[in-house]
Amino acid sequence: MKKLLPILLIFSLLLAACATEKSTNQNKEYKIGILLSDTGLGDESFNDSAFRGLEKARGELGILFDYKEAPDGNFEKPLEELVKENNDLVIGLGFSAQEALEKTAKKYPDQQFLLIDAVSELDNVVSLTFKEHEGSFLVGMLAAMTSKTDKLGFIGGVDVSVIHHFENGFVQGAKHFNPKIEILTAYAGTFGDAALGEKMAEKQIAEGADFIYPAAGFTGFGALKKAEEKGVLAGGVDSDQYFVAENAVAASMLKNIDVAVFNMAKELTEKGKIEASSYVLGLAENGVGLSEIRVISLTEEQKAALKKATEDIIAGKITVKSE
Q: Do 75 and 101 contact (CB within 8 A), yes or no?
């Protein structure tokens, strides 16, 4: 019995230490700072979704948060400001922030950063990416189901890897349903020009496309409005963009950045830090998905085809290539 007492004492002390640490984490007021991507708040897509996630974390988890924008393209200055404001986590939203975020992360090795939409190898940077190609596959199927011309249009913002995910998934999904369908593709070179998006969509529609899928930020906003004006269908991205063009947006590829950001905030409050070095979220992880289908009515067979494709992607029976 005497030998057992020291062991029990050590075990009790360990339990008490764990309980104290958990209690400390729960009582601490955590702060998160985010640098929004190029187009800033009001894009009704990428930035607004991340912002909603932080608003939910503030309401449900009690976190404090601040945000910065960099319309001049100088990402380093606002990132450094967020570090100096003593945020527990600093988020860089979008692949365009990677270079500046990594430079800042090297300067402040004790600060934890989260990079969304790109992958970093730095120890103090957590990477969060999405399988946009899986969600876009479903939009492509939907577009092919509704097309009367057998021509679809894809408009990308900047010609980079993450936008290729949207394009490639869309093309594969469309051809999965109709192997003979044609997809017109164009890149704007910017995420911030709605007028250019309108012109590009108008050109594709004139060439016969009767469904436009823009993965192009505010440039895509213009494309959706033009699709509505011309009486063709469209697919939204990142958030449910139905209310951008209510007579055109049949469905949106949901990139659940709000859910992911909230979950990162929750892990921070529960554990004191984000433990994994990277996260990749697809259909199986509820990272991407298809919004409610509006404007159009699908047959029972078409609904079943979309449901089966979703299940097959999650089960690994359908492999959607990102590149």
A: yes
Residue 63 maps to which CATH number?
Answer: 3.40.50.2300
Domain that holds residue 113: 28-130+257-281
**Which H or E run contains 64?**
strand 64-68
pTM listed for this prediction: 0.85
pLDDT digits (tens, 9 = 90+) for 203-253: 999 999 999 999 998 999 999 999 999 999 999 998 899 999 999 999 999
Count helices and strands (H / E) in the chain.
Answer: 10, 12
Q: How far from the centroid of its chain's Cα atoms is residue 133's Cα?
A: 12
User: DSSP 3-state assignment of 194?
Assistant: helix
Whether residue 245 sits in one domain with residue 185: yes
Whether 69 and 214 share a structural domain: no
Task: Report d(CA 195, CA 220) in Å as an integer.
Answer: 9
94 near 50, Cβ under 8 Å?
A: no
Please provide residue 117's backbone torsions phi and psi, each rounded to the nearest 5 degrees: 85, 15
CA–CA dist 139, 234 (Å, integer) = 9
Q: What is the mean pLDDT of the chain?
A: 91
